[in-house]
Fold these 2 entries.
Entry 1:
Amino acid sequence: MKEMICIVCPRGCHLTIDETTLEAKGNTCPRGEEYAKNEITSPMRTITGSVGISGGIHSRLAVRTNRAVPKSKMFEIMAALHACRVQAPVKRGDVIIENVCGTGANVIASRDM
Amino acid sequence: MTKHDIVIIGAGPAGLAAAVAAYEAGVKDILLLERDCEAGGILNQCIHNGFGLHRFGEELSGPEYAGKYIDMLKSTDVKLQLGTTVLNIENKIVSAVSEANGFEQFEAKAIILAMGCRERNRGPISVPGDRGKGVFTAGAAQRYLNIEGYLVGKKIVILGSGDIGLIMARRMTLEGAKVLAVSEIMPFTNGLSRNVAQCLEDFDIPLYLSHTVTKVIGKDSLEGIEISKVDENMKPIKGTEKYFECDTLLLSVGLVPENELTRQAGIDLDLRTRGASVGEDMQTSEEGVFACGNVLHVHDLVDYVSAESERAGRSAAKYVLGTAAAEKDGLNVNVGLNLGYTVPQRINRVNVEKGVDIFFRVRKKIRVGEIRVESNGEKIASFKREFLAPAEMEKITVPKVLLDKANGSITVSAIDLEEEAK
């Protein structure tokens, strides 16, 4: 049995999961069960960061992946963000990097600028 | 002097939600004052995700959450005035100053206080040692990194395990810095459990519980930090010192509601929350002045700030429209065993339709607990709760039928059922 804290939402349920049968306990929603299973088989995270922006009111534009990506790709995605620079105006939800690092996820703008 | 139905101070999440709710409740002449160059408040620098699950049913970043409210605000006729710092509130007259207009005064029928909170810094916690550069509050480092694009250091020690400190531990690690240690004086963390999991454990960042900084070393620039284990009285234990060579110390040692304006206005403050004392309608001790969000009590989740602020906005609208019930049949809410505080601090039962939400924090970790509501020594309501922790704000909803059994005041306590069983 492995104990973990669910990170799907701020509630932070205390989960236990059987590593062989992948049976989860302690979750209060189905997303918790899915999280526990993924944590054992292939942990996923949403990556948030920023990219450089010209012509905006600030020098950084907040961005995030539009869905969770493999945890093992975190630093590779950060490098892709560092290499990226955009020009204002940008709208919230605009795709900044398509299929980032081959994960199938897009990096999207978090705000208008 | 210009006149407005409602003047709201602060266009962070609290002010935005209050403005939209008051407008929707029928008050059209609303002025929202903000000292920054844009609305959204602290959410703009909180670029991590996890916001909005309760409010919008999806996981958003801070700027996205703010953006949704800014869009809602744009669909109203609420007047947003940026770059304007409020100096004083007296008898419903708000005095403010801005680069564009100089000194101005606004007369309001109702005022909503939504100034938010401020980070506790080095002064109030008396960190000993040299005073060279390299010591930042976690939020200041967050602003430098996420808005302005500067990483303030490469080798980091973090004092305090509040959420901002945990979030910054991950953020700075992802940006290439090395976080050597998070030191927490309490035997438990002050952040959400999920943040310990996804910000520290994901990156193998060591968390030293019951440890505090005992020496800051570096005359001009920070060179190193010494931490020591503390005993049950939080006094450092000699011989337990650990040294970390580092260039940055981040402080994540708590947030304090920013109530200078409230205090100057002579409004009653609650020493526990350090915010105004309010009724269930979010009205302060001064009639027609409401408060909501982190200026009232520090929240963990912006979703709760929005909900509370919408309540304040609706109440202020009722007050302006003359549909608010006069205060009568009031109940004081007392803080009982194991409780840190409650909001509201009083309940006007005339306003309660189905039930009233009481927010609180416990003072110690309770695994299996019962939240008990008593009046005159008699139990009127009880709620089972598991995994209560000081870091997590909790809520009970007391139904009106049970509240009607109370007389004069109610006392809310958190009973540790495991301890009681012993």
Entry 2:
Amino acid sequence: MSVRLIVRTFSELCITIGALIVLFVVYVLFWTGVQAADATEGQIDSLRSRWAHGPVSAPPPRSSATPNAPNASKEPPAPAAYRDGKPFAMMYIPRFGKGWEWPVLENTEVRTLQKGLGHYTGTARLGATGNFAVAGHRRTYGDPFKDFPELRPGDAVVLTDGTTWFTYRIGRKPYRTVPSDIGVIDPVPRKSGFDGPGRYLTLTTCDPEWGSSHRLIAWAHLDATQPVTEGKPAAFHS
Amino acid sequence: MYGWIWRHLPGNAWVRALISLVLVLAVVYALFQYVFPWAEPLLPFGDVTVDGSTGTGGGQ
């Protein structure tokens, strides 16, 4: 009788663990994507509504941490620092499909990357001299960089901060490295083929697709800019 | 253990079945809402940055 009880309890335990694993796989493969779609939508909405209300370079003085507030009215105001964890730009990569659009948020913490792409804090601003570095999920949370290895030299990476379109061009095929190789997001990234200061962009994601042993890196340089009032850049039509 | 739970639920078979369903849904909700979001970042799918804090170590 007690043997039967043990066997029964053991089999129930196995079934329970099996069900747990199946549920977890559903969560990782499917539910994180649903959540990311939701979160991304919210970020894009907040960006669009912010862009609709006044220029981006002069956000409402909500942060109160701007020391140069007093006599900034005459000169063009210094660009406001990106707010931690908040979206500040949209990224489009035509190679990944027409509908591929993701918000870029400030910092690369786990919670931030669940809502969109993350800009490495401390790297250059969008369009500025230096290296504008962005990380994104390869898998889970909407799979933004799923097709990362498809990037080829000349591919466009288009970004907008609400006032300007920035078109970056990929310089070489994605480069595979180890996670500790922080030189890839240097102002003049090592191994990128760029040899002097310039306006660069770096994308990073994980490799292999479901692993974390390596990173895939793509570098691009600023090719063109144009005000949003002049419509979408030509890179969308190529 | 499921037999034990079943025996301790009140009412007839239909009521018990209904309560069981509610219990199962509650467990699944708790898993998706609290347990899995906690467990998922422990897996390597989110390591997409080059900060050296994961993987081979080193860096910052």
